[in-house]
Write a structure and sequence with these properties.
The structure is a single chain. By secondary structure, this protein is mostly helical. 50% of the residues lie in helices and 10% in strands. Strands 1-4-5 form a 3-stranded parallel sheet, sandwiched between helices. The protein has a two-stranded parallel ribbon with strand order 2-3. The radius of gyration is 17 Å and the shape is globular. The chain starts with a strand and ends in a 19-residue tail after the last helix.
């Protein structure tokens, strides 16, 4: 599982890890946050019209996750697959709490979810993450910038405050949830190598040498 703020590079790294694990002959399933067809359209419409309250946002994401967990994640784990997730329940623990939801309530909502064998947390300053995001598009998204929280009338300042709070939540969870911290400011290849070495400890598969990093692309927002 990979976690981190938007623009931390986590999506780039988990896709590279996916390709690498498949090259080892392992059965891999990849899933990402907010991708269930059951609620994806509803969530998209709510975002476009800025109608989502913190509780509504939380419940929609919980529904999305529960659907993917029941249909894909749980059955494939039982079938012996390596399941990779671009954001897992920890995204809810962080974002919902920053938006004002009770930490205990949010964790209870997701209490059915299995604890990952390994969770990578990509640590990167919000300023660097925002630079990466804006390289690929002209402006920040409404909820991405935390504009629904009335932190600032300026979307860039709102983003800085909002993402800063998210970082604080992630940092508070590093020890409790046993995150493996990856420095998101390192080069793409170095990050990937560190991830692969950690994953090898989990899958306990002897590999004489790590394959050269597969093709890379610029990290962006997720």
């Amino acid at each position: 599982m990979v976690e981190g703020i938007d623009g931390s590079g986590k999506s780039t790294q988990v896709h590279l890890l996916d390709k690498w694990l498949r090259s080892l002959g392992l059965r891999v399933f990849f899933t990402e946050w907010n991708s269930s067809d059951v609620v994806k359209e509803i969530t998209s419409k709510g975002k476009k019209k800025a109608l989502l309250t913190p509780t509504t946002f939380s419940l929609l994401h919980a529904t999305d996750f529960a659907d993917r967990y029941e249909r894909n994640i749980s059955p494939l784990l039982e079938a012996g697959y390596c399941v990779l997730a671009d954001r897992y329940v920890y995204t809810a623990f962080v974002r919902d709490v920053v938006r004002g939801c009770s930490p205990a309530w949010v964790r209870k909502v997701y209490s059915f979810a299995a604890i990952p064998d390994i969770t990578f947390y990509f640590r990167v300053p919000p300023e660097i993450a925002m630079e990466r995001i804006l390289e690929g598009r002209p402006k920040l998204k409404y909820y991405e910038a935390g504009m629904d929280l009335n932190l600032s009338n300026d979307e860039y300042e709102s983003y800085r405050i909002f993402q800063g709070r998210i970082v604080d939540q992630y940092e508070s969870m590093v020890g409790r949830d046993r995150f493996v911290v990856i420095d998101g400011t390192l080069g793409i290849e170095e990050q990937q190598e560190r991830m692969r070495r950690q994953v090898l400890k989990v899958i306990q598969r002897p590999v004489a040498s790590l394959p050269a990093p597969v093709e890379t692309r610029r990290a962006g927002g997720t």
